[in-house]
Amino acid sequence: MQHSALRQAITDGEQHLRPVLAEAQFQRYVEVGLALRAAFRTPALRDVFIDRLKPHRRLVAGTLPAGIQRHGMLPPQTPPRSLADIPDAELAQWLVDDGRLIYGEFTPLELDHYFTAVAPWLPERGQGPGHFIDLGSGLGKVVLTAALALPGMRCSGVELLGYRHEMAQARLQAMLAAGDPQEAGAIAARVQLRQQDMFEADVSDASLVYLYSTCFAPLMERLAEKLARELAPGALVSTTTVPLPHPAFELLQRFDPPSVAWTTVFLYRLRGSSAVAPAPARALYEPDGAAWEAAVRAAFAAHDAEQGA
Ligand SMILES: C[S@@+](CC[C@H](N)C(=O)[O-])C[C@H]1O[C@@H](n2cnc3c(N)ncnc32)[C@H](O)[C@@H]1O
């Protein structure tokens, strides 16, 4: 297969070891996370855990917040604050932050399907090279696959977490080393990986924005507003699982599973300048309270059994 050595360099690493979050910018996240994790693990605090989280369960991807589970990135220490001292608004924001830090990605085959599916909508070559941007680019695999699938197009990734950005850069170097120098040079000139908050990223010249948005539901309105404001008319945006809630975007195609991937992929185009005002906020999926609580209590029991309690 064409580019097979380069493609090989993009695979693996999805089960990577998550380091403990140590950067100062995550201090509040760590503090709240430690308080929640302690409440989850301490039988006397479990009713409080349920009472505090239940009103916000729509912000939790699954039963328990990812950050307090074994694969979370919290350090092994006692919490400096107790859950009772954490205001409700801070807890809700923590859940949003926690969800967006979840790592997930498409398989190489799903990415092949994706680039084949969006190809008919991409700008013609004569209209300039185009710019593909992955917002929340994780380990960089989508950006690097794009560099192979979209010849000539600039391909950028924007990732918040330093360790993921570094893994993406190492992957890019490995990929470049696997190609012949001329091919590697041409790819290196088109690929850019940045450590940055996606809300601060310049997307104004993007022709296709990729969002692996499965865990971004509470962020989607803010993201849609940024994209509607900053992209040029005609620019494309694809999302996974969660639609883009803004009338400035027209839905071009909805790819239901398993046609492209395990989840739905939505492809949108920004309409012309007559964009309408944003639609009122829509309620997110709200899991049933009793079912959620039963699942959490089962998770307590599973935790205790694991500890031999
Ligand atoms: C579900 S992963 C997807 C990774 C990659 N796009 C892929 O599909 O393989 C989402 C990524 O978005 C990153 N992220 C979350 N919030 C972000 C933000 N505000 N700015 C930049 N990256 C962010 C997370 O750290 C995570 O690596």
Automatic annotation (TrEMBL):
Keyword S-adenosyl-L-methionine included in the entry's annotation: yes
Coiled coil ranges: none
Statement: the UniProt record of this protein carries the keyword Hydrolase: no
Molecular functions per Gene Ontology: histone H3K79 methyltransferase activity
Superkingdom, natural source: Bacteria
SUPFAM superfamilies recorded: S-adenosyl-L-methionine-dependent methyltransferases
Alphabetical UniProt keywords: Methyltransferase, S-adenosyl-L-methionine, Transferase
A Pfam entry, by short name: DOT1
InterPro entries linked: DOT1_dom, FAM173A/B, SAM-dependent_MTases_sf
Gene Ontology terms: biological process: methylation
Stretches assigned to the DOT1 domain: 131-175
Protein name: Histone methylation protein DOT1-like protein
Organism: Pseudoduganella guangdongensis
